[in-house]
Amino acid sequence: MTDSVEPHRNDVFVAPGADVDVRATIQPGTKIWHLAQVREDARLGSDCVIGRGAYVGPGVRLGDNVKVQNYGLVYEPAVLGDGVFVGPAAVLTNDEYPRAVTPEGRLKGDDDWTAIGVTVGEGAAIGARAVCVAPVTVGRWALVAAGAVVTRDVPDFALVVGVPARRVAWVGRAGEPLVAKGDGRFVCPRTGGEYRESAGVLTEVCVRGDR
Length: 211
Prior knowledge:
Blueprint: E1 13-14, E2 19-20, E3 25-26, E4 31-32, E5 37-38, E6 43-44, E7 49-50, E8 55-56, E9 61-62, E10 67-68, E11 73-74, E12 79-80, E13 85-86, E14 91-92, E15 119-120, E16 125-126, E17 131-132, E18 137-138, E19 143-144, E20 149-150, E21 158-161, E22 166-170, E23 179-182, E24 185-187, E25 194-198, E26 201-206
Parallel strand pairs: 1-4, 2-5, 3-6, 4-7, 5-8, 6-9, 7-10, 8-11, 9-12, 10-13, 11-14, 12-15, 13-16, 14-17, 15-18, 16-19, 17-20, 19-21
Antiparallel strand pairs: 21-22, 23-24, 24-25, 25-26
């Protein structure tokens, strides 16, 4: 490993072949697996898992207990809250108007564009091979279905599917679709947690643990 954190240093595990810049900040309990790359000035919270071949860009911020599965690509300046899941081969982009060259045909450098990031709220999940096209915000505990393409903000607790992604249901903290009880009330079939919808916004009324 070149310019990498040593395995088990400060209770951080870095597998052989991973590339972790020495300027990255990584909290205890985090594991970074084979062929993953964590760039300079990235900040990873505690107990994160960065899967094989995943990429975490310069200055990206991950909260605690974040999972970036194999070959997930999180480009700067993305910000992921605690407990976020990024599925296999999912992509969080950072270029609103992508071009390899300037209008004059010159290869673009860092000064020729401004990176814009994706923000993902606490507990949200991005399914396998989904794409979040910056700038978008995925709300708390939302669920982006596998293969979806997110081009606009996703509300808290929304389940979005398709290309472009659209909301088809509400989900609770367990990720399962909520059951409507009438009068804007919903309940989680797994945890019994209660929710209420008003003006297209879902809020928690009562949070309960797994049964």
